[in-house]
Design brief:
single chain, 119 residues, 2 domains, alpha+beta
Length: 119
């Protein structure tokens, strides 16, 4: 068996766990990467929040774009119940079209805004 194929099969058999490639995830925009010290830290928690309701689609797209750039991505979508009622929730087909596996999305909705931080 070819060594490259053997390594590929071994990587597929790995149990998902903490980030396998620590370091930074550069965004590819020099000015932003410079401010971030080279990029976003892999294996760290990052909050992406829209400045207002009108910006929710852009924030969602940015979060999904980042998630598909990471190995074994997981995305935690935490929102208030009222936010779901007003703006809706991510849809499996739309997430899939982004190249993100819907089963890697964890959605949490809270009754009160103060509970979002606890989540």
């Amino acid at each position: 068996m070819d060594e490259q194929l053997r390594q590929r099969l071994m990587s597929l058999q790995r149990i998902p766990g903490p980030v396998e490639r620590p370091g930074l995830l550069p965004l590819g925009i020099p000015a932003i990467d410079k401010v971030l010290g080279g990029g976003l830290m892999r294996g760290a928690l990052h909050e992406i929040a829209a400045a207002g309701e009108i910006h929710l689609p852009a924030a969602a797209g940015f979060a999904l774009g980042l998630a598909v750039c990471t190995p074994s991505p997981r995305l935690f979508w935490i929102t208030e119940d009222m936010g779901l009622a007003e703006s809706g929730a991510p849809h499996g087909a739309g997430i899939d079209a982004f190249g993100f596996a819907p089963e890697r999305l964890v959605m949490v909705s809270t009754a009160h805004r103060r509970d979002m931080l606890r989540a």
